Amino acid sequence: MDGQILVISGPSGSGKSTLLTRLFQEERDLYFSISSTTRSPRDGEIDGVHYHFVSEDEFKNGIDNDEFLEWAKVHKNFYGTNLKPVLQALNDGKIVIFDIDVQGFNLAKQKFSNYITSLFLTTKSQSELKTRLQNRKSETEASIQNRLMNAVGEMQHIKEYDYFLINDDLQSCYDNLRSIIHVMRLKSSQIKLRETIDEWIDN
Ligand code: ADP
Ligand code: 5GP
């Protein structure tokens, strides 16, 4: 498999979706791993685009049938990465983007460590995170409190990731994310060795 995986984790509200939406408009050969989740869609979220929104029974069937590369319970809902499309995209040589939590990252590493580059994203402060969650207007106060509490736990894992970005100024954070994609494309694992050497000899 010639493809690679970029795992992006970080507190809910840190800006992962915002950055990824733009990245997909501007970069080629990326594939977004559409997770399955038991949580309800937010305004503007489309089934099959942002997530596969499923019932708890459907999700549990998926677990029983080994359909998930990893799965976890986050903020009281189930979330899982669908294995089959990821394998297909890796075979097609794509950079596959996983927007998953810290638990999912650790599970994915057990199976796909050679393929993974990882990035932890956060805001400049907890109060900024709270403001953004409130501005998103999709969460109840209890859900915001739950996400803020989880965020503190997630931040303990920053050093397990290859890269760390603070999403303060959106443009500069986006530029840094794009740089990470560009560097991934320069990895020696990405070259076709035989063809590269043959071409080098011939020229
Ligand atoms: P996540 O996908 O990590 O949960 P979102 O992308 O939904 O986070 O972003 C949460 C909210 O913060 C959204 O309303 C988004 O428009 C806003 N946002 C994202 N990045 C920034 C930024 N750099 N500055 C200000 N607001 C931002
Ligand atoms: P949200 O509900 O804000 O979309 O996502 C909540 C959290 O679940 C985020 O930290 C997000 O990265 C994580 N998440 C989304 N999909 C998956 C998945 O398939 N597996 C795991 N482990 N976490 C996920």
UniProtKB/TrEMBL annotation:
ATP binds at residues 10-17. Pfam families: Guanylate_kin (PF00625). The keyword Transferase applies. It is an enzyme of class 2 (transferase). GO terms for molecular function: GMP kinase activity. Keywords: ATP-binding, Cytoplasm, Kinase, Nucleotide-binding, Transferase. It comes from the Bacteria. It catalyses: GMP + ATP = GDP + ADP. Its main location: cytoplasm. Transmembrane segments: none annotated. It is found in: Cytoplasm. The keyword Cytoplasm applies. Its EC number is 2.7.4.8. Residues 3-182 form the Guanylate kinase-like domain. PROSITE patterns: GUANYLATE_KINASE_1, GUANYLATE_KINASE_2. Essential for recycling GMP and indirectly, cGMP. Belongs to the guanylate kinase family. This is Guanylate kinase. The lineage of its organism: Bacteria, Pseudomonadati, Campylobacterota, Epsilonproteobacteria, Campylobacterales. The gene is gmk.
